[in-house]
Amino acid sequence: MKALKKWLKTIAMFFTSLILFQSCATYKNSVTLSQAAQEEKAVKIITVNDDAYKYKYIIYEDGQFYGVKDNPGKDIKFSINAEEVAEVLMKEGGFPRWALIAIGTVVFIGLILILVVKPNMNINPGFGG
C-alpha cells in the first residue's frame, strides 16, 4: 500500500508539471503593429512609458489599430495609439496542447492497466526508501 501511495504521488506530480508547462508562454518576437494584425496572435505591447498591455490579438479597422481582450461572452476592443507604442511582442506558444493530451492519455491508460489488470502487482517506481 505504501508503494501504491508513492506511485500515485509520482503520477500527481507528473500531471501537475504538465499543467504548468501548458500555461508557459513567452513573448519573444518583436514585430510591427501591422504584422501583429495580420498574424492575429496574442501580443504584448510595451509603451514608451514602459507600460505593458496584453491582448488576445490586434486588428486594424478604419485606419486605427485595436487590441482585443477576451471578456466572458464577447471580445472587447481597445484603441491603440501607434505613436505611444515602443515595442510589440508576439506570443510564442509553450508546450503543444496535442502533446499534453497524448502524454496524459498514455499515462492515464497505463495507470488504469496497472491498477485493473495486475491488482496484485508490487508497484515500485524506484524512488528512495
Structural write-up:
With 129 residues, this protein is an alpha+beta fold. It folds into 2 domains: 1-24 and 94-129; 26-92, SH3 type barrels (Roll). The chain has helices at residues 2-23, 33-39, 97-117; strands spanning 26-31, 43-47, 52-55, 57-61, 64-71, 74-80, 85-92. The radius of gyration is 23 Å and the shape is elongated.
Task: Give the oligomeric state of the chains in this entry, treating copies of one chain as homo and distinct chains as hetero.
Answer: single chain
With strands numbered from the N-terminus, the spatial order across the biggest sheet is 1-7-2-3
List the domain count as a whole number: 2
SSE class: alpha+beta
Strand content: 25-35%
Residue stretches low in confidence (pLDDT < 50, at least 5 long) are none
Element string (H = helix, E = strand): HEHEEEEEEH
Helix-residue proportion = 25-40%
Distance between the termini: 14 Å
Q: Main sheet, how many strands, which sense, barrel?
A: 4 strands, antiparallel
CATH fold annotation of the largest domain: SH3 type barrels
Shape: elongated
**What's the CATH class label of the largest domain?**
Mainly Beta
Task: State Rg.
Answer: 23 Å
On the 0 to 100 scale, the average pLDDT is 79
Q: Helical region count? A: 3
CATH architecture label of the largest domain: Roll
Count of extended strands: 7
